[in-house]
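TASK: fixed-backbone design
INPUT:
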């Protein structure tokens, strides 16, 4: 019962926080200057009428030749009302207006088409980073203050201190250009589970997972080192368990309690940190689409993708908190 009330409370706070953030995003992006520009082969007059239909502008002004020379912007609060009405009544999250590649295309359809590469490179980076990071952290904790521990700790400090974009540049130069192990760009197409596609994703995956490996190793070493010096470990040894048995049965189980929830939060941080990496390795994912929508001020794309990243982050926080109570029965969320 306590857990149920806690989850309801967190969901309510999440919705309130999500609403506030999205309201701020909508108002701030609408305060920016709005320029109507037509692409190559696009009828500018038709674009004006489309913007009127979407509720962006009104009161078009014509010259003597019938050309549109001016307009008034719809007040922000009315634009917000029209935007929410389209979402809740028609399920219409908008269409592309300014980005030439996505003009008149539904935002949701474009998002679904770009989502698989983003999800895959983050899943691959987690599948590589989690076991390697945990193994290095456990090994460093078992070899505390020995040369192995010093080597691992030094490498962890270096990896954490350097931004992932620097790793990306090094990987791009050495592995892709100098030694030609991986292609410099991701393969085109939608056969995401093929070997060629997987190989073309590896430069981006390696760029993302290096920082994750360092984070897991540092956190695991710190937690496990503390557990190994606990009184119950001494009691386990006095009961006749070997050092390996005591470590496997007791130390790892207790040390992993705060580590497993951090894996979820680390996945989310990698997901949000892949924006630049996707651009560098030409990954046709959500990150590149988001950055392009910001540059072009394509409002519908910007709002939908901002909501996606915001909602994923908020949900991850709730999942992490709840997982503590599931992993460790001693924790009861919401209990006094």
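OUTPUT:
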């Amino acid at each position: 019962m306590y857990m149920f009330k806690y989850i309801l409370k967190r969901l309510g706070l999440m919705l309130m926080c999500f609403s506030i953030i999205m309201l701020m995003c909508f108002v701030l992006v609408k305060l920016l200057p709005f320029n109507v520009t037509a692409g190559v082969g696009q009828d500018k007059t038709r674009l004006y009428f489309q913007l009127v239909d979407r509720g962006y502008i009104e009161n078009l002004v014509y010259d003597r030749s019938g050309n549109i020379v001016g307009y008034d912007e719809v007040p922000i609060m009315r634009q917000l009302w029209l935007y929410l009405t389209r979402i809740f009544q028609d399920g219409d999250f908008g269409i592309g207006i300014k980005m030439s590649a996505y003009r008149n295309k539904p935002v949701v359809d474009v998002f679904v088409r770009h989502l698989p590469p983003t999800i895959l490179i983050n899943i691959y980076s987690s599948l590589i980073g989690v076991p390697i990071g945990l193994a290095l952290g456990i090994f460093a904790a078992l070899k505390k203050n020995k040369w192995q521990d010093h080597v691992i700790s030094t490498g962890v400090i270096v990896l954490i201190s350097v931004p992932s974009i620097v790793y990306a540049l090094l990987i791009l130069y050495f592995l892709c250009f100098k030694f030609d192990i991986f292609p410099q760009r991701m393969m085109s197409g939608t056969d995401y589970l093929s070997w060629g596609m997987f190989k073309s994703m590896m430069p981006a995956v390696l760029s993302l997972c290096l920082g994750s490996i360092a984070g897991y190793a540092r956190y695991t070493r710190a937690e496990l080192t503390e557990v190994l010096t606990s009184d119950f470990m001494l009691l386990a040894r006095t009961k006749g368990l070997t050092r390996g048995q005591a470590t496997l049965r007791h130390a790892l189980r207790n040390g992993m309690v705060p580590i497993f929830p951090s894996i979820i939060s680390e996945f989310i941080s990698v997901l949000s940190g892949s924006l630049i990496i996707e651009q560098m390795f030409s990954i046709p994912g959500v990150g590149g689409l988001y950055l392009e929508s910001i540059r072009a001020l394509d409002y519908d794309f910007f709002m939908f993708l901002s909501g996606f990243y915001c909602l994923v982050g908020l949900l991850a926080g709730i999942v992490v908190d709840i997982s503590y109570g599931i992993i460790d029965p001693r924790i009861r969320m919401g209990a006094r």
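COMMENT: The radius of gyration is 26 Å.
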